[in-house]
Design goal:
The chain has 228 residues and is an alpha/beta fold. The chain is built from ten helices and five strands, in the order βαβαβαβαβαααααα. It has a five-stranded parallel β-sheet with strand order 2-1-3-4-5, sandwiched between helices. The longest helix is centred in the C-terminal third of the chain and has 15 residues, at 188-202. The mean pLDDT is 83.
Length: 228
């Protein structure tokens, strides 16, 4: 099945370059683009992409605000695409808030072309782009130095079974489904089932939000993850 993508970036050359690269892939179709977050939201709600490549800093409406509108739409708007943030390290604050809002991950704008293509496929498949250890360190750092949310997320852990809690902890430590299956000595499909139940019970959109929730609930602490 073809992955429908729109590119939202205020630099025309960036949009053109990304569009040419992605359109050359047999399984990816670039169906729209926009120069700012406000127009990006409008385009997304018109063409219904699977993935939105969203720059962080843009005029009119920045990528963070646009991501929030797409991922928490008003009543009557059903479509919610996956959002992949495009960023640089000097704006980590925005990256964390975007992940917290429900973005599926982030990618450096100067990443190799193969990484961009792979990222679109990963996010479209429903996974979060959280494999690089630097991403786990980023989340751990911001969760570690921010005040806890007004509602204590630890209380929501009570609704999970011990095995589901264990799976959530391993997700937050950066393990893949295959690695979790190996550690728990269960089938990978069983791990996917547990993850689905965890996300459903905690009302989380994907693994990115699961990682953030685990840190905020105190299930894992900054520095606990592999490579952190």
């Amino acid at each position: 099945m073809t992955i429908r993508v729109i590119i939202v970036d205020d630099q025309a050359m960036v949009r053109a370059g990304f569009a040419a690269l992605l359109s050359a892939q047999a399984d990816i179709d670039v169906v729209g683009e926009a120069p700012d977050g406000r127009q990006g939201v409008q385009v997304s709600r018109t063409v219904h992409p699977d993935v939105v490549l969203m720059d962080v800093r843009m005029p009119e409406m920045d990528g963070l605000s646009a991501a929030r509108e797409l991922l928490d739409p008003p009543p009557g708007v059903v479509h919610r695409p996956k959002v992949l943030m495009l960023t640089t390290f000097d704006i980590d604050d925005y990256v964390y808030e975007a992940l917290r809002a429900g973005a599926s991950g982030f990618l450096l704008k100067d990443a190799p072309p193969a990484d961009l293509i792979a990222a679109v496929r990963v996010v479209a498949s429903g996974e979060a782009l959280l494999a690089p250890s630097v991403t786990r360190r980023l989340i751990a750092d911001f969760v570690g130095r921010r005040p806890a949310p007004r509602k204590n997320p630890a209380l929501r852990l009570n609704g999970l079974t011990p095995r589901e809690t264990e799976v959530l902890e391993l997700i937050a430590r950066g393990l893949s489904n295959q690695e979790i299956a190996g550690q728990l000595v269960v089938a990978e499909q069983t791990v996917k089932t547990h993850i689905g139940r965890v996300l459903g019970k905690l009302d989380l959109r994907d693994r990115a939000q699961a990682v953030i929730f685990a840190y905020e609930a105190g299930l894992v602490r900054p520095g606990d993850g592999r490579g952190a």
